[in-house]
Amino acid sequence: MSRDLWRPLLRTALTPMAWGTTYLVATEFLPDGRPLFAATARALPVGLVFLLWTRRLPTGGWWWRSGVLGILNIGAFFALLFVAAFRLPGGVAATAGALQPLVAAGLAALLIGERMTTRVVIAGGLGVVGVAMLVLGPDAALDPIGVGAAIAGTVSMAAGVVLTKRWGRPVDLVSFTGWQLTVGGLALLPVAVLVEGVPATWTGTNLAGLAWLAVIGTGLAYANWFRGIQQLPVAAVSFLGLLSPVVATTLGWIALDQGMSTVQIIGAGAVLAAVVLPHLSVGTAVHERFTNRSVPWRPWLPRHRVPRPSSNRANAPATSARTSLARSSTDGATPTTAAEIADSICCADTPSPRWRSTTSV
Q1: Beta-carbon count within 10 A of 116 CB
Q2: How many Cα neighbours within 13 Å face the side chain of 319?
Q3: pTM for this model (two decimals)
C-alpha cells in the first residue's frame, strides 16, 4: 500500500474506534431504556450547531442528495440498529453488522466501478467469523424481525458510504456533515418522542455521556468518516468499521471487568487481520484505476470517474484523467501523490484549493 494512503487510513480508523466507546458510555452514563432518544440527541444538536457555524444550506440537487445521505447514514441506520439491538442479543446484531464491508464492496463494484477482489472477499469472511467469535455467545437466539433490521441497517450504512463516495462533497466538511446529521436527527426525533418519550430528569453523568457521544462520537467522528470516504476506496473505509466491536469488547474488559476468553482473543486477532488484509493492495488498486490501466470501461458510470480507453491519445476526450492532470498544470497546482490523484479524480465535484476538476457530475 502506498505510504501516502496510510495517513488518511489511520486517521479514518479513529472514527470506528470512537464508535466503539458507544456501548460503554450508553450503559454507564446515559438513562436506561432510551436508545432512540440518545441517538437523536447525539445527532440533531450537533447538526444544527454545524449549520449555524457555517450558515450554508444545500442548493439545487443537493437538497435531495443530502436528505438521502442523512437518512442512510444517520436516520435509518440508527433506527434499524435500535430495532436489532432490542430484538436480538448484542452478539448477533454485531455479527450481522460485520457483513457491511462485503455489502459495501459489492455496491461499490456496481455503482462506482471499484473492483471486488478475491482478497476483499476473503477479508470480509474473516471479519464476520472474527466478530462472531468475539461477541457471539452460546445462548444467542435469532428473531426474524431483528435479523431483518440488522441486515437492513447494514445495507443502509453500506449504501450511504458508496453514495457519499459517488456524489462527492460539494462544500466544506463541516457543512456537509451538518446537513446529514440534521436530516438524520429530524427523522429520528418524532420516532424517539413517540416510542420512548423525553427523560424526566438529567443528571450530570447523563449530560457528560451525551456530550461525549455528541461531540466526539458523532460530530467529529462523522466529519472524519466522510473525509476518509472521499480520500480512500470504499473497500478500505468499510473494513475499518470492524474495529468498533474490538474496541467495545476491550473497553468492557478493561473498564467493566468483563472477562475475555481465548476464543474472543482469537476472534479479535481475526478481525484485525481482516481490517489489514484488503489495505495491503490499496496502493496498487488506486494506481491501476487512475492511470487507466487494466480497468474495464463501464458506460453507465460518469465519464470523469472511469474515462473511456482510447488508442489515439492525441484525440483523447478532454474529460480523461490524463488530460485533466495536464490542464491542471497551468494553474500551478498539479497533484503529485496517489492520495491527491485519487481524491481529485474520484471526487471531482469536491472543491479543493489545490485541485479543480475540468468536469462536473
Answers
A1: 18
A2: 13
A3: 0.72
